Amino acid sequence: MSSKADWPVIPAKLNAESQERKFFTEHEWLTIEAATARIYPSDQDPGAREAGVVRFIDRYLSGIDYIYASADGSGFLQMSGKLADAWRGRIADLQNKYRKGIRELDEIARGEFKRDFSELTPQQQDQVLEKISGKPKPKPVTLTDPAPLGTMLQGVSDDDMPFFEALALHTRQGMFADPAYGGNKDRVGWEMIGFPGPKSLADTNNCTFSVKEYFVKDFEWEDLIPQLKKGAAN
Predict the structure, then answer these.
(1) Rounded to whole angstroms, how far apart are CA atoms 47 and 135?
(2) Distance, CA of 167 to chain centre
(3) Cβ pair 197, 210 in contact under 8 A
(4) Which of 10, 15, 52, 113 could bond 185 through an S-S bridge, CB–CB 3.0 to 4.6 Å?
């Protein structure tokens, strides 16, 4: 298989902030937008709604045109052959999973509150999401709280994930992925966590932007191996 650097680039068919629906119907769009807004709600900081997470998910589910952004951000890489076939199969499974999940959200909402999910209050939507996920709503997390078990081991693959887990993963990705993919509008996700981010993907390609300063530090060996520091002192 050739390197991604050799794959042809297809110019982006939509600008990053276009509201054009590529997969969802209008009702499905509003439903997923409402659900992501409860997974990453708006408070003193922008949430999933302001970041355009539903747009990120809509493009991801639309096929294989928005999977790999080109290195310079001018478009997306064109897949072909067995890899393209494999991706079409994965996306088809996700499309079915989302459509089934949206129907289930509405069925629970109508059964509990006599209205579609997107028409409920935020508190009622939380109750529906608790029911479909089978878990209580997580408590707010502060910077002083210890990290929940497994936080650092969260995967990035949606293979075989149930609907709610896939939706939660895609919500996180839409909040913090490069804006070229349709989410993280105006870089609100990056700004919220204090990450400067590149102005465009081209800046990462030509090394105008680098994260080296965040990872390459000068340390004294005693600080890295405290056991040896203690032994030397004795």
Answers:
(1) 21
(2) 9
(3) no
(4) 52
Q: What is the SS3 assignment for 10? A: strand
Task: Find the angle CA(220)-CA(224)-CA(230) to the nearest 5 degrees.
Answer: 90
| Amino acid (1-letter code) at residue 180 | A
The encoded tokens of residue 17 equal 């902030």
Residue 152: pLDDT band (50, 70, 90) is: very low
pTM: 0.84
- pLDDT, tens only, 111-126: 999 999 999 999 999 9
CA distance 179 to 183: 5
List, as one string, the DSSP characters of 107-163. HHHHHHHSS-GGGS-HHHHHHHHHHHHTSPPPPP--TTSPPPTTGGG-----TT--H
